[in-house]
Amino acid sequence: MAGALVKARFEQVTKRFGTGPDSVLALEPITLDIAENAFVCLVGPSGCGKSTLLNILAGFETPTSGEALMDGQPVRGPDPRRGVVFQQGALFTWMTVQDNVAFGPLATGKSDAEAAQIAARHLEMVGLASFAKRYPYELSGGMQQRVGIARALANDPEILLMDEPFAALDAQTRELLQEEIKRIWQSTRKTVLWITHSIEEALFLATDIVVMSARPGRIKARLSPQFALSSDPGVVASAEFVRMKAEIFGLLREEALAAQRQEATR
After folding, report:
1. How would you write the pLDDT of the chain (266 residues) with one tens digit per residue?
2. What does the alpha-carbon distance between residue 191 and residue 200 come to, in Å, rounded to a whole number?
3. Is 49 helix (H, G, I), strand (E, B) or coil?
4. b (16+ CB within 10 A) / e for 220-240
5. Residue 218: which residues within 8 A CB-CB, separation 6 or more?
6. Can you give the pTM of this predicted structure?
7. Of 14, 105, 114, nearest to 56 (Cα)?
8. Per-domain residue ranges for the chain?
9. Quick one: which of 54, 35, 76 has its CA closest to 212?
10. Fold of 6-73+159-264
11. Torsion, CA 53, CA 54, CA 58, CA 62, rounded to 10
12. Angle at 264 between CA 259 and CA 266, to 5 degrees
């Protein structure tokens, strides 16, 4: 997205867990720009620091050195301008679906009526308007994740941070939700940072794919697929999609093997 405004930036960010000889360097110095309205996917082997990087931008973790910036200002902690969705929906089990989605707007000062309208609009957006009065335990895993997405969107964040939100879902549900999240992104153009282990998911959704190395994580490659603006799920069968999938597979295989060697020598 050449020429686009930079919405978020990692500036020479490193992260080390622990101290002394048993400490673990999770991230080497990483500098990465995320353009406004971009959909950026991080892919890499397990343990490469993808979630750590996301948590630093969320304000849940502090870097050992360097800094994360949003709109040019350092990230000092969680902020409602950044919405987070995790692998599990993390819903309030004692609240209805509508009350879960309305929670954020109420917490930021909206009236009961305003919060209810916001919740209804976002439940409609994710196709769950008819489940507003249900409780999370009455929903499937895929439906719970859709509620989590609606809850994040209801706060009208400027950036959405998504940590493998579809990882625990079956393949068919996952594919349908990928189409749904693409539709939502195309209509809202929120800036998104998305973590996934799925090459196909990254190619289908992202304007930018960042491939990370085995620990300590660093940026190995950055690619710009052209499928994010397509509404045709059949793009996954196109020659260019297949070519890019093979390219990323090759990059990730090298790093997965390196990660295996690291584990074997621990």
Report:
1. 556 799 999 999 999 999 888 899 999 999 999 999 999 999 999 999 999 999 999 999 999 999 999 999 999 999 999 999 887 668 999 999 999 999 999 998 999 999 999 999 999 989 899 999 999 999 998 899 889 999 999 999 999 999 998 888 888 888 988 998 999 999 999 999 999 999 999 999 999 999 999 999 999 999 999 999 998 999 999 999 999 999 999 999 988 888 888 777 76
2. 20
3. coil
4. beebebebbeeeeeebeeeee
5. 27, 28, 29, 30, 212
6. 0.91
7. 14
8. 6-73+159-264, 93-156
9. 54
10. Rossmann fold (3.40.50)
11. -20
12. 95
Strands (E), 93-163: 159-163
CA-based nearest residue to 119, from 94, 92, 156: 156
What gap in Å lies between CA 124 and CA 143, rounded to an integer?
13
Strands 191-195 and 159-163: parallel
User: CA triplet 218, 223, 226: central angle to 5 degrees?
Assistant: 155
User: In this structure, what token pair is assigned to residue 173?
Assistant: 């549900």
Q: Which token pair is 135?
A: 């409780």
Q: Which residues contact 105 (CB under 8 A, 6 or more apart)?
A: 114, 115, 118, 119, 154, 155
251: helix, strand or coil: helix
